[in-house]
Amino acid sequence: MDSDEVLLRKASQGCRDSLRRIYEAHKDSLLTLANALTGNRVVAEDIVHDVFVAFAKNVSRLHLATSLRSYLCVSVCNRVRDLARTEIRHRRREDQVSRPPADAQAPNVSVAAAEMEGRLRMALEQVPLDQREVLLLRTQAGLSFEEIGQHQGISSNTARGRYRYGIDKLRSLLNSELEP
After folding, report:
1. pLDDT of residue 47
2. CATH number of residue 133's parent domain
């Protein structure tokens, strides 16, 4: 299997198969990230497709300073920010989509997991966007604080602080649900 660097070089030379392989390699993690940022699977899919269309159009002019995965994750975050400025709150209310239970053989486990996921998603939506992005880039995309800082134009210490504040906010929100 070719590395991202090799696939990127081939894609920049017009190889469609390389673009497809890049898409296949990264779409699931980017979709997870976009879904976590937006709380809406349909919007998340649109975001990932928009990012890859823009990537495919500009691949020949692209010169990466970091990993391809990092670049794509930050592109997803930027696209979410763009939508947040214009219409994401409106679309989220209109297009609420529920996911079917993942484990049909143990419905009580599925219900509990879906309930916990719903609580976490609701709490995550209440975390400020800058902190939420850092949380998700760190946990979902596996980026270092240095990579996050570089892509967001902030220091790695600021990224660490946003991460810590985001975790504290999540804990506070989730703990307040448990208190009588």
Report:
1. 92
2. 1.10.10.10
